[in-house]
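Structure ticket #2291
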Amino acid sequence: MKKGGAMRTSILKSVVVCLIMLNSLSGAKEKQLLGFNSKGASDELTLERRLGVALPKRMNEYHLIMTAEPHHAGTEANIKIGHYYAEKLKEFGFDEVQTFHYEVLLPRPIERSVTLISPERYELKLVEPPYDEDQDLTKDGVLPPYNAYAADGDITGEIVFVNYGLPEDYKVLDSLGVSVRGKIVLAKYGRSWRGIKPKIASEHGAVGCLIYSDPEDDGFVQGEVMPKGKWRPEWGVQRGSVMDMPTYPGDPLTPFQAAKGDVKRLPLDKVPTLQKIPVLPISYGDALPILRNIEGPIAPDSWKGGLAITYHIGPGPAKVRMKLKSDWSLRTIMNVIGILRGSEEPEKIVMVGSHRDAWTFGGRDPISGATVLLETGKLLGDLAKKGYRPKRSIAIASWDGEEYGLIGSVEYGEEFAETLKNNVVVYLNRESYTAGNFSASGVHSLQPFINQLTKDINMPGSQGTVYDSWKENSNENRLIKHNGYENVRLGALGSGSDYTVFLDHLGIPSINLGFGSGNGIYHSRYDTHWFFTQYGDPGFVYGIALTDLVAKFLLRMANSTVYPFDYSSTAETVHQYIDEVEKESEDRNVAKHLNFSSLRKSTTILHATSLVLNNQIELLLSNPGANRALIKEVNRYLLLAEENFTDNGGLPGRPWFRHQIYAPGFYTGYGVKTLPGVREAIEKGDTREAQKMMVVLEQSLQRVQKTLLNAVVVSAGQ
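Resolution: structure written out below.
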């Protein structure tokens, strides 16, 4: 057995050398549809030409119905929209539509007040007034501005302005001799996820946190404010969760378990993801009286915002009293999942999902995305009714509880972990969008596939394709050569949406893509149907293109002969990440304690094995008589590959996050940290932990390489 394994490795090395030489000499002939043989590609393109065109009238109808009233998680209004979503999928011809219920912790505010008590007195309004242009704003049921999972409290303290409230800002405060201990910090929204700001403030001894949206970031400095424009008005406030999601997302009381039935729940005082201090979001209208009463050092130029004041740091003399109390009840959420059953491999699932719960009406976030998915379901259902069923099943999911902390998708992922790992080929996340540039982030094995797909989608308002626009708007360092063609490099996924459980916890290949541009209505009362049809995507022009893109993504993934993953792109990207962390170790003067050669060697072998597999798959697809059982076995190994980047021990201090290539940063929240275990240990200066996580990373690279090598051996038996 050992002798055979050595022979197999020797043969592989010889083949690799030849393939690398051939690869360097290859011409610029782009492959036909990735994952398809010649006939399959022809059939697929014929099928896609039969795909209907999204209709803005239908999309407007879906959007109008789903934004008709406020529908935050845990309300009857949101359950009602879930049932509407389910009925539409049934109407479109989906074979099975299921609902999944969970009982989760969803705090809601009972009392909120903030008073500037000196040197002048001012009672913060903490409300968002309506305006005449949008009749939805007169409706009842809108949650007031608050930050879910902030601690209850009644506190008084001097204010310290901390810029965006990030670790680097506290270094500036330290250099100026300013402490936040016993103080209330005032931070700007932006540059990081909101939950990081109170987390860091608490670690530095602050007793409370106020977060405001500065007009320089998303207000009048950017352009006309609502209702004359799309930017945040004076009293607009960004709601949102401040759960410590980099520790673990989902229901705070039931980590690693689905929140249902008699599951054991943590007591509130033992939950690590709840904030330890009171936190409230405020408008820049309410922030101004506080800011103009702060003295002390003048803020650095990079800290100054768009208000017509001199920004000071403090502490004081501005002093504030904050009172915050919430109802910490369990409430019911409901996921909806529709299945269009495949004709050949119904157990294998290509899944797309978006959430539907909103902080208010959800015009952009998230109902724009839900609208696209319903119209995608309509087009796919129409094909199925005509007899054109996908080979594998297609699932469309409507998640609940996302805004509070990705709760619906996480609970579902934790409940059905093994089934999902064994059967979900890929998860496409399609949340909100607006008219704007295209972007895509995901596992890099999907990079060639996404680049090829976007070449077949027309870019709204352009004579070119989505790919052309994507490439044009990408920096040069985002452009790489693949198979003789220029590809745009995918971004890496951190967290912040429902792909998190699929990628970071379960190791399922995931992608998040769409169109977008800046605006100032995020998580505010003003995110309505009126806003979206006036400023978000008038006429659903970008929604039509996005529907086309999503439908073709699902069809190609569901109908491909061999799953269109290319792990040579992953390996190339990991090489780049290793370069980055090694430079980081040099910059922090810890490089002498670390040796990256083993990581580089493992990545090189993974890259070479991937090239061999790519070549074998091409040979397999070019053989009209290829054994179907053999192809199925190759696909089985491809399905296992991404999962092998996960480690059961997880990341240091947060075992829920298992992926060793991608994770949200512990102090970035949504923002990604690539090679997270190694990178964050280096950033802390903890060389022992860095050495340990380098071993864990290397082992994951080797597992993936061995999995792909098994696929090579299987494919060679054609």
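Closing remark: The mean pLDDT is 94.
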